[in-house]
Amino acid sequence: MNISELCIRRPAMTVLLSAAVVVIGIFAYLSIPVAALPSYNTPVINVNAQLPGASPDTMASSVALPLEKQFSTIPGLQTISSTNTQGVTSLTLEFVSSRDIDAAAVDVQAALLRAQRQLPQELTQLPSYRKVNPADAPVLFIALQSDSMNPAELNDYAENLISPTLSTIDGVAQVAVYGRKAFAVRIKADANLLNARNITLDELANAVRLANANTPVGVLDGPRQTLTIQANEQMLKAADFARVIVGQRNGAPVRLDEVATIEDSFESVKTASSYNGRNSITLAVQRQPNANTVQVVDAVRALMPRFKAELPQSVEINMVNDRSLSIREAVHDVQLTLIGTILLVVLVIFLFLHRLVATLIPAATIPISLIGAVALLYAFGYSLDNVSLLGITLAVGLVVDDAIVVLENIMRYVEKGMEPFAAALRGAREVGFTIVSISISLVAVFIPIFFMPGVIGLLFHEFAVVVALAVLVSAVVSLTLVPMLASRLLKHTPREGGGADVDDHEEHHPEPGTAIGRAFERGYQAVHGGYMRSLDWTLHHRWVMLAVAALTFVLTAWMFVSIPKGFFPEEDIGQIQITTEASEDISFGAMKVLQDRVGEAIMADPNVAYVSSFVGVGGPTATQNSGRLFAVLKPRGERA
User: Fold this and answer.
1) Residue 381 pLDDT more than 90?
2) How far apart are CA 274 and CA 600, in angstroms?
């Protein structure tokens, strides 16, 4: 007894198993991660080091060169490229595709430790590194703006109120703050005044450090109780630092404000972000690798009313650069495409079979096969993204083939007068091996894509898996559910004259019952007649057909060479990323002015809804002479 016969004789079991597949598939569809691209690790690691005040040449010779020497000993390293700017070095390490990126990261960390002795002593922090993964890009930006509030106060709300709350959301990996303006007191020493009083910078720094100490003082032991002595001498404003004594000269104390300018400022004045031309503090929400982008954004959106209620009325909070919008549109477009494809497939089946019941049987296999494939995707840890959705769309035309082959063979015997139950047993048994062969051959077509090396292979690995799973599930459904439904739903149509001579090769086709069906049948017969006549002509003119085939091959090769090629087809997702770069010796102030001009030029376009801008070290940019802008376009229907 084969699997088809088992399912035909046990319809209840077959229905329950199919229903279980549907239920599990629906659960998987609701739980599977949704993202723009598959989550994959490219064999690239980025290393950054900062040495404030150093020139690009100094960064190249004293920082980049020692690091490159240590990195060159790492196995599997293919290329090293470095960029050196004012006080910043950025190195990109690209490994061979077969190198495990996690193991490579461990080797990079070990190389950084070995290089520490060769780096300048002024480099107090060890260079940082991160694995480059396009899927780790922020899924959402939140911009805070205020016309009346101090940037430092706005920064406090971002870091102490919004960021901790967002970090507790399920699926959020990190919340980074761009354009940070954390409060700090800046002391600008006057060299002439220091020389006049014979005070060195080290003396000044030590005096400030001791005056601003927050160290344990001691304890006071009593007969019954022990008390901790607290003496917090930390100073919080510029006015507090002004009276600090930095030395004694000629019997008189020298205070800090006599040799330096003291002002309330920020920890970093060389980073900035803006939203629609106004300065802002921007929070970048990054999702976890297997998190659902749409669910993460929806959870953040649900917290926005709470943030608006807790923030002062002078603070504006806006969600910008929502990457879930393009994902929602892609999923919606694919859903519409799937519905249209399924309807067209069902229509074609009906026009050829002329029976509604016979049409519904293979039509039912399409959603079951696709839902089953989604369940397996979820079980294997894949996500629902543009690549997997492309595979699902392609699989619609493939999953129905097996069901049509099985059903057509069963109907052939039913139309000859055989009972549907017996016809299902015989028809499914005859084509069982054929279905398995077809499915394996289709899966074999995608095996090269599955093992394709490089970034392309990492990206389209999921595409091959989706199609292969859908084909395999459809083969199982075609050999189980389809013959069972055919044995129960098809009607017995005895042949005229009685008997059921199943060995008779003359088949009986039912007459279409509708005008549309009859018109289609006439058209089909006309096309069939034309094909037979053309086939007869080609068999008598073989050399002509060989010449046409050769010409077709040549034209195909020419078109392959001539057609433009690219990594991804152009797609309008309503967002544009712009990268700016100036000379390496440009100051932050000059770079900020140029960046603002670029932003103004982009916002002048009537098709642009808003622009987010980032410049300086930190956030989306790694060097002082580079910047990044994110322009979000208006909906397609509102563009000029």
Assistant:
1) no
2) 11
